[in-house]
Amino acid sequence: MTDRTAADGPTSQTGTAATTAAAEAEADARALIDELPDTLPRAEILAINSSKSDIHTHRTYTYNGWTFRLPPGVFRPGDTSRIIHDRLLDGTIPVEGRSYAAIGAGLGVEAVIAGVMGAREIYAADIHPDSVATATAHYGLIVGADRPGTVFRPLVSNLFEEFPSAARLDVITFNPPAVSTRTSDDPTVVRNVCVGTGIVTRFFDQITDRDLLAPDGVIHLVVSNTSELRDIVAYAVRAGFRPEITHRRTWAGDNCRAYLFALRHDHAA
User: Fold this and answer.
1) 28, part of any domain
2) Cα–Cα distance, 176 to 190 (Å, whole number)
3) First and final CA of the chain: distance in angstroms?
4) 47: domain range?
5) Is position 123 within any domain?
6) Residue 95: DSSP 8-state
């Protein structure tokens, strides 16, 4: 009896500690979700997401002194995309020596920054073939297709569907087209702006189902209250991720609030 009690004691204490930690994590997640704002009314969302009437034209985009040329159909980054760009460039989202995936690579700004910052492996993934081709061209022009120490992997992929089964990612960034209100009848605009919450739930489902995130990996997701913000974060928590707000952004003249979340597996340190 004495021996069994001695053996059971530490196990019981360990179980109690784990239960307490889980309860604290759940409480923290609930508090974070509760502090998030409600989704904006439809009229405000439509006012913020003005018509993308130039998306079928040739355009240019400048960032960090680099000039990107956009063919018709390739989306020009907006303010929420620049949140990710700036955090990659200043090292807040560290990619040096890491396997990195830019989901919704667009014209290639994230891939270019990751190459300049010394990522070990870069997946530039987008469902739109012309965007992947554009990102590839910009990477080659600005970073160089054969940069030593970095493998560049452009992929035409619906989220992670075309990723190799062996892929394990240290860093993932995503600015999802999750606006909750349909802002246009143009399918190109819809693809880039207002697919809705479902694209984010599929994003998390694919990561967990395919075990894509490395043990210490981090997802960096930017979402605003033009989307179903609380529902998205709550779904991530149910899928086993621990959210942290790492950046907040507001704009003068409207009620839009954007958040950059870092999400880790619950078991990650």
Assistant:
1) no
2) 12
3) 37
4) 36-265
5) yes
6) -
